[in-house]
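Ticket opened by: R.M.
Priority: normal
Category: complex prediction / small molecule

The reporter submitted a protein together with nicotinamide-adenine-dinucleotide and asked that the result be attached to this ticket for the collaborator who will pick it up next week. Submitted input follows.
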Amino acid sequence: MKRIGMGIVGAGFVGPHHIDAVRRLGFVDVVGIAGSNDASAAAKARALGVPKSYGGYEALLDDPDIQVVHNATPNYLHYPVNAAAIAKGKHVVSDKPLAMTAAEAKKLLDQATAKGIVHAVTFNYRGNPLVQQARHAIAKGEIGKPHFLVGYYLQDWLIKDTDYSWRLEPDKGGASSALGDIGSHWCDLAQHISGLRITDVLGDITTVIPKRKRPTGSREAFAAAGANEAYESVDVKVEDLASVLVRFDNGAKGSFSVGQVCAGHKNDLVLEICGPLGSIRWRQEHQNELWLGRRDKANEILQKDPGLIDEAVRGYAHLPGGHQEAWADAFANLMRDIYQFIADGKKPSDAHPPAFATFEDGYRANCIVEAILDSAKKGSVWTRVNY
Ligand SMILES: NC(=O)c1ccc[n+]([C@@H]2O[C@H](COP(=O)([O-])OP(=O)(O)OC[C@H]3O[C@@H](n4cnc5c(N)ncnc54)[C@H](O)[C@@H]3O)[C@@H](O)[C@H]2O)c1
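Result attached by the on-call engineer:
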């Protein structure tokens, strides 16, 4: 198989997971890392065993050994880096949210389509074997036509006023914090598993901690404040908690909440889909189990076991039952779907394998988040998502 060269811009928290995931595929060479300066990029490249480093993304984009560019920078750099990579004719794997605004995301989708490059967004929960199992079961009609989708995505890493991230600064993270960062994942997953589209939303958004202590030095993503860290007090303009009512294109109703201030919830994404014949629930923190709710017989828990899940989704499970698969394995499944598509020489307009979300999916998520913010701003009224 022809080898594919990969380069990544931004190697903070999630970037190294992109690198790990593509290395597991066996036919991808991690060629280089671009960072915000020469020294930090070189240090990251050394630590991760990557041959080349660049002090800025432009130099990485000029490297002829790189065919696929991953963008794992803070949100405000998604548009410029993605747009520049597309202009150079590179395939692009962008982390989510695709862009700061739906308008920017649409431009990226249009530019990528015009250039004919393969484009992907890391809605990585799609890569979990039991997520694919749930999707397959619903497509086969096992719960009937879904009429209710409910869930939440809660975390606690911003619960103290000393917790801080660029995600809280609108010029770096966008107009939304919790909804853009984790609500975008919930919305993509709900639509992906159910096969439905979100059409209308009603949002109620809150900033539980309106004043925070921003460290004056640098701090790793998701890290707690150090004992003697210096800080300055800042006003927070973005939400850390939100509840949303949702309508879907088949008439189904639903609701979800997101929060980054909910103690004990580490990365707690829960999605339940109810239909007339049954319900299905998947919970990220217990991702090797799928709950199947029944009216006329006992409920079941299906364990992740290649021998027990449908043949059509077996390729997403790599270990026997009882051997837990997790976040990083699902991330690698996503990369497998994307890179196999590239290796097969497919065109972006060809049918995509299921775990592979495109810029179109990224654009849709941006549209939904904007509609929720718009709804909340208007006093929590029903708002149509303007795709
Ligand atoms: N898919 C997921 O589940 C998931 C998980 C975490 C983060 N993310 C997304 O990934 C992105 C990065 O998040 P993170 O948590 O890794 O953030 P982070 O702050 O830990 O890392 C960002 C990296 O980008 C680098 N950077 C900043 N400016 C740069 C520039 N001009 N050129 C090159 N590099 C630059 C920083 O030095 C840092 O290493 C965000 O958009 C976030 O939403 C996605």
